[in-house]
Amino acid sequence: MTDAPAAFPAGGAGNLDGKSSADPSPAEPGPPPAEGPGQEFAPKTTVLDRDGDGHPPVLTGPLVGLQARNVSAWFGTHKVLERVSLTMEPGMVTALIGPSGCGKSTFLRILNRMHEMVPGASLGGEVLLGSEDIYHPSKRPSDVRRKIGMVFQKPNPFPAMSVYDNVASGLKLAGIKVRDKDTVVETSLRRSGLWNEMHRRLRSPGGALSGGQQQRLCIARALAVSPDVLLMDEPCSALDPTSTRRIEETIAELESQVTIVIVTHNMQQAQRVSRNCAFFLASEGTPGHIVESGPTEQLFDAPVDPRTADYVHGRFG
Fold first, then answer.
1. Are 213 and 201 in contact (CB under 8 A)?
2. Is residue 52 part of a domain?
3. Which pLDDT does position 316 carry in this prediction?
4. What sections of 118-157 are H helices per DSSP?
């Protein structure tokens, strides 16, 4: 991408479920990560291994971070983001905070190329996954979204599809074939904190779950394809306190396994779940930008900019 605005172009279950097993052919390996000068983060070299107790595989190995460089965004002629630069470090949770309308969710969607799905949308700048520009002409949006998953504000499982098939649908939508679909489903449900509640109810429809369970099911579906990064757009805003606590526990457990970027309006939640934080702000008539970013503890306890202090202590927004 460049700094000038550029318009985008238009854009079966396994044995756990009691059905026939998956296609035995393995997923085709993707190309090795690009290397070269300017590489910011270690490439992902994760593998699936069973632990000593025989539990399903967990991801191990170096993780990959994201970096936005001078990202600006438009809807038509309306500029909504102004030269946003932010490093989202691998294996950490980065929280995006700020008042409504300051561009946080737009920025989140830029990170996995969903912004370009909006007619008339355009942007400038760069977004790097490791050392790779996700907007390079050689990158397909579907491949980028496989590596950078998204969990939305409102849980969106397939309501008539079983819990098992909801998780497995992530593989199907991404065009991934695996030898052992049962293991992928179990691992994904364990990682999302839902296995203990659902392992005897895998045939239950996704729409029959509680709101918090549905959101964790969506997290499991996103994790099934082993993304490098998981984006979360206010994942707890529609949930009760108990469900919110469980989602936050899931985020804490996932932090060492995947890079997470979360948008939240809950300042206490940002303090609880994130290591790093970025404060977005948009003044009247001007696009959103980052006022301050850094370790979460610093932003809340000793912010540099007085506007940050006013916002995190509830004086506006």
1. no
2. yes
3. 81
4. 141-147
Cα separation of 28 and 31, whole Å?
Answer: 10
Which of 276, 298, 289 lies closest to 107 in space, CA to CA?
289
Domain count, the chain: 1
In order of 125, 192, 246, 294, the CA distances from 188 in angstroms are 34, 6, 16, 31
Does 22 reside within a domain?
Answer: no
Residue 6 lies in a domain: no
C-alpha 293, offset from chain centre: 19
| pLDDT tens digits for range 201-214 | 999 999 999 999 99
Burial 167-184 (b: 16+ CB within 10 A, else e): bbbbbeebebebebbbbb
Residues in the chain: 317
**Model confidence pLDDT, tens digit, residues 226-248:** 999 999 999 999 899 999 999 99
| Angle (nearest 5°) at CA 245 between 241 and 247 | 115
More confident residue, 51 or 299: 299
For residue 287, give the CATH number of its domain: 3.40.50.300
Most confident of 6-10, 141-145, 313-317: 141-145
Q: Is the pLDDT of residue 13 over 80?
A: no
pLDDT in tens, 122-166: 999 999 999 999 999 999 998 999 999 999 999 999 999 999 999
Which residue range(s) make up the domain with 279?
Answer: 47-157+229-312
What angle (nearest 5°) sits at the alpha carbon of residue 109, between those of residues 108 and 114? Answer: 165
**Mean model confidence pLDDT for the chain:** 83
* Helix/strand/coil for 68: strand
Q: How confident is the model at residue 36 (pLDDT cuts 50, 70, 90)?
A: very low
- Give a yes or no: residue 36 inside a domain: no
23-27 contact pairs (CB < 8 A, 24+): 23/177, 24/179, 25/177, 25/179, 26/177, 26/178, 26/179, 27/176, 27/177, 27/178
Query: How many Cβ atoms sit within 10 Å of the Cβ of residue 107?
Result: 27
